[in-house]
Amino acid sequence: MELERGLDAQVKEICDEGDVLIEMGDLKGAFRNFSEALSLVPDPKEKYTVTAGILAGLGDVYFHGKSFLQGKEVLSDAMHCAGAIGSPFLHLRLGQCHFELGNLDRAMDELARAYMGAGLDIFSQEDPKYLGFLKTRLKPPASGQW
Fold it and tell me: What is the DSSP letter of 82?
């Protein structure tokens, strides 16, 4: 389901500001933005496609704040929302949280999904340890080069 236009625009603006706050290192501010955006989504929240993006933002805040357990939980919740499955970013962050928590089989699965959905580009701004880990678990692409 989609939000009505005015509300959808408002939620997206709040989330965009949250993304900027993450880039600036203001994780508390970003958390407030994403929490506010989530509060604007009617129940049942998981039926709205925008909810997956909001939870992805919250998961990103937790990941950058090194709260990997909370990140894993909110990103796992996001996977139950409309339109979430197959989102490379959600799979990336969820895989990274699992990696940091030592859940290496789940990390491999989620990071592989991120790679399959977006290719190497999704790892370009990330710590190289995540792609390095994935390379130890997956066969190289048909081209033979990563």
Answer: T
Question: C-alpha distances in angstroms, 96 versus 43, 75, 145?
Answer: 29, 11, 23
Which DSSP category does 86 fall into? T
Alpha helix segments (H runs only) across 45-103: 49-64, 68-78, 88-100
| DSSP assignment of 20-41 | HHHHHT-HHHHHHHHHHHHHHS
pTM for the model: 0.94
CA pair distance 98, 68, nearest whole angstrom: 8
Distance CA 20, CA 23 (A): 5
Question: Collapsing DSSP states into helix, strand and coil, what is residue 140?
Answer: coil
pLDDT over threshold 80, residue 61: yes
pLDDT number for residue 2: 92
DSSP, collapsed to helix, strand or coil, labels residue 131 as helix
Mean pLDDT of the chain: 96
Token duo for residue 56: 């992805």
Domains of the chain: 1-84 (1.25.40.10), 86-138 (no CATH)
Euclidean distance between CA atoms 144 and 110, whole angstroms: 22
